[in-house]
Amino acid sequence: KIYNRPQHLFTAEFVGLSTKFRGTVSAKSPGAASLASGGVLCVADFPDETAVGEKVAIIVRAEDVKLNNINLQNRLPGKVLMRSYLGEDIVYKVQCAGGQEILAKIPVAEAGSFSVGDEVCACFSSRSCHVFRLPGGERIADTIRDEVIQLKAG
Known about the structure:
Elements: H1 9-14, E1 18-29, E2 33-34, E3 40-41, E4 43-44, E5 55-61, E6 66-67, E7 74-86, E8 89-96, E9 101-107, E10 119-124, E11 129-133, E12 146-152
């Protein structure tokens, strides 16, 4: 539960490799969240009581990120900045629009042959997003549907 459903932002960041997206909810509609950087982020478990103007952080675990998997809802184009072999896994750091960096931890058998400088698409499911309120950092209650939110930088 601590790793798969963290209840606080500090725990989510402290345990394991992850990427944090920060922003302010600027609009809500069913299905995804659009970042000011131009990428699209589909957010699951986003409750009705979350208000436009509320600051949030979204955490995505590195092992939930795939490269060039067009079957996943979130597809953020970018460039490979780092490739690090870690025994059974390869960790990639991808820089996307607006400077957002995303970590992907992929088993060697599935990692492909991406090199530093390659153009890729960092992809992840909406169900892999963990949403937290800012500045407090508490997890936003789970719901059973996806929600689209528009995020502004900040």
